[in-house]
Specification:
By secondary structure, this protein is an alpha/beta fold. It has nine helices and 15 strands. It is 29% helix and 34% strand. Strands 1, 2, 3, 4, 5 and 11 form a six-stranded mixed beta sheet that branches. Strands 8-7-9-6-10 form a five-stranded mixed beta sheet. The protein is elongated, with a radius of gyration of 21 Å.
């Protein structure tokens, strides 16, 4: 029986493309938003969900980070998808005929220089694939979408301009989440994701962070997010590299937990 893989968006969205690359032989299931895809996996309707956690240009996807902090799913791996944005229009349109461009806010931000240079008005959409579908259905040469070349083929659109994102190293990291804490990719990469809140006492955060170095872990990413419902209170997201199979891993977590109100090992992969 095929596994069911949840993602947010419609066919042609970058999340859909990532899900198909990670799970080429499984059933890919579309959901309207991040929360719906997450909850469908949490309640057993789906086996995995593939959600974006960070773009190299636009930064973190805060809504997904919040879901990971509050929810029960584990990260089984992280997949990086190179993102190439293109300007798509209906047949008969051109760079000169286009006046308005529809896409996801991050895609619009990634292509802001191109849009400004051409004097296009930017219009937000839920995601890039929905923007392409909308332009296709409108069949108006004054509208265009920003999306992938795969999306152009899906919705019978023409590529008016290729590779229009400002940064050429544009990529998005997608988390593979499930109810199990087992890693998905077979290679032994020794990466961990930990999320936590610290106790309200002097030096608590520094003491927690120092534990990574003390136990031989290299922090590759750290960021904070406001804790909903508690003004001026934050939780922290950390990615680190190190050997979590060593005996002193448990000692490290124990010493960190002493300074934390909540500590969650989100993934080891």
């Amino acid at each position: 029986m095929k596994k069911r893989i949840a993602y947010s968006g419609i066919e042609g969205a970058f999340a859909n493309i990532a899900a198909k690359k990670i799970f080429p032989d499984e059933e890919i299931i579309s959901f309207l938003d991040f929360r719906s895809a997450y909850k469908a996996t949490e309640n057993g309707e789906c086996d995995f969900c593939v959600l974006p956690i960070e773009n190299s240009y636009a930064g973190e996807v805060g809504q997904v980070t919040d879901l990971m902090f509050r929810g029960s799913l584990f990260v089984n791996g992280v997949y990086t998808l190179d993102v190439v944005q293109n300007l798509l229009g209906v047949k008969g349109s051109s760079l000169q005929s286009v006046k308005k461009v529809i896409s996801h806010p991050q895609a619009l931000e990634q292509c802001a220089v191109f849009l400004n240079d051409h004097g296009y008005e930017a219009i937000d959409a839920v995601n890039t694939a929905r923007a392409a579908k909308q332009v296709s259905e409108m069949n108006d040469i004054s509208f265009a979408a920003i999306a992938s070349d795969e999306t152009a083929r899906l919705y019978n659109l023409e590529i008016l301009a290729s590779d229009i994102n400002e940064k050429r190293d544009n990529s998005t990291k997608f988390a593979i989440l499930s109810r199990s804490d087992e890693k998905f990719f077979p290679e032994n990469s020794h990466k961990v994701i930990i999320m936590f809140t610290v106790k309200n006492e002097a030096g608590a955060l520094v003491k927690v962070l120092n534990k990574f170095g003390d136990f031989g872990f290299n922090m590759t990413e750290i960021r904070s997010r406001p804790l909903k419902g508690l003004a001026w209170t934050y939780y922290f997201y950390i990615e680190a590299e190190g050997d979590y199979e060593k005996q002193d891993w448990k000692q490290m977590i124990s010493e960190m937990s002493y300074r934390c109100d909540k500590l969650k090992i989100l993934g080891k992969f």
